[in-house]
Design brief:
five-stranded antiparallel beta sheet; SH3 type barrels; 3 domains; mainly beta; OB fold (Dihydrolipoamide Acetyltransferase, E2P)
């Protein structure tokens, strides 16, 4: 069993009957009173982020997790289907385990985080950036704006909607940051 001195970003813990990942933490030593650790915890089952304060030296239950390489195959009526890239074993993952499911493309390589002791999937980690084709966006007209940062909505091949600069047209390939869901750049074909 670990204590608050072992807390670090990315550590997975068992807390209030759920599995959480530490997103952010801060050790605080006030001038008066005892020290404590302020944390932001993300539930790996629901995706909710909560704030919690642990007293200094408090015991925490560390959960052992494993990250395994998978390839996205398809979506059926109940779940998303992934295949392990080495064993070819298939696993079905419900949508709420995936942060931005509309960014998934068939054949995409992802990392799935598993609870090592219970062998259950906890979350799906997409690559940092993905390239999608724009299937619909309004044409940008030269002189439409006074600033160079004007944006317009665009829909990608998977149905994901993103704000893009005016120079992006239907049929262009764009790079999207999967963590924020924002446009990064236009990609040459």
């Amino acid at each position: 069993m670990a204590n608050t001195a072992d807390i670090r970003n990315g550590l997975c813990i068992e807390f209030k009957g759920d599995t959480y990942q530490i997103v952010q933490f801060q050790h605080v030593k006030p001038g008066k009173g005892s020290a404590f650790v302020r944390t932001k915890l993300k539930s790996l089952t629901t995706g909710r982020v909560i704030d919690n304060t642990f007293p200094s030296g408090a015991k925490i239950d560390v959960v052992r997790v494993e990250t395994r390489p998978y390839q996205y195959l398809y979506k059926d009526e109940h779940a998303y289907v992934f295949m392990h890239t080495e064993t070819f074993e298939q696993v079905y993952i419900e949508e709420h385990f995936i942060e931005n499911p509309l960014l998934l493309k068939e054949g995409m390589e992802v990392q799935i985080v598993f609870h090592a002791d219970k062998e259950i999937p906890l979350s799906v980690e997409l690559p940092a950036h993905v390239v999608h084709e724009v299937v619909y966006t309004e044409p940008g007209i030269k002189g439409d704006t006074a600033s160079s940062t004007a944006m317009k909505p665009a829909k990608t091949e998977t149905g994901f909607e993103v704000q893009v600069p005016l120079f992006v047209n239907t049929g262009d390939l764009i790079k999207i940051d999967t963590r924020t869901g924002n446009y990064v750049e236009r990609v040459k074909k």
